[in-house]
Specification:
This protein is of the alpha+beta class and 140 residues long. It has a single domain, classed as Nucleic acid-binding proteins (OB fold (Dihydrolipoamide Acetyltransferase, E2P)). 36% of the residues lie in helices and 35% in strands. The protein has 3 helices and 5 strands. The protein has a 5-stranded mixed beta barrel with strand order 1-2-3-5-4. A hairpin with a 6-residue loop joins strand 2 and strand 3. Helix 2 crosses helix 3. It is elongated, with a radius of gyration of 19 Å. The termini are far apart.
Length: 140
């Protein structure tokens, strides 16, 4: 055992600093929205997931936030470009900062979104459905 123990706050603060030093930049990340809630204050809280392509099981999960000042710009931009509401079940390409807070733990702060990624995903899903219906003989 070490001579001096750290307080929980001090340990988590070291985790915060290590993460900040390891990932100082923003990153573009592909994910699926599994939950989305808009707070009365205008902040948008999300749960993001990534599924295994073969087993359709969740292989990664993270909380994310779009602060109100950013959400006021991103939401209409995304929705007018894609003609789709930001909602659970859609795949997105988002620009994030990885953050850690002593009280709230790990989360991603979303600063931008690329609507063309979602449009491409929706088009791909639509074509898969059409192909399946043709295979099943429902569409000719």
């Amino acid at each position: 055992m070490q001579n001096k123990a750290l307080s929980l706050f001090d340990l988590l603060n070291q985790v915060k600093m290590a993460l900040k030093n390891a990932l100082p930049f923003s990153w573009w990340v592909m994910a699926e929205i599994s939950e989305l809630k808009i707070n009365n204050s205008g902040h948008c809280y999300l749960e993001l997931i990534e599924k295994d392509n073969i087993e359709d099981s969740i292989r990664a999960r993270a909380r994310a936030t779009i602060w109100a000042s950013v959400f006021r710009m991103l939401q209409p931009y995304f929705e007018t470009t894609t003609h789709t509401k930001l909602a659970a079940g859609i795949k997105v390409l988002i620009k994030v900062n990885a953050e850690f807070h002593e009280l709230y733990g790990f989360s991603l702060n979303i600063t931008d979104i690329e609507p063309s990624y979602t449009v491409g995903e929706l088009t791909r899903q639509k074509q898969e459905i059409i192909n399946r219906l043709k295979t099943e003989g429902v569409l000719i």
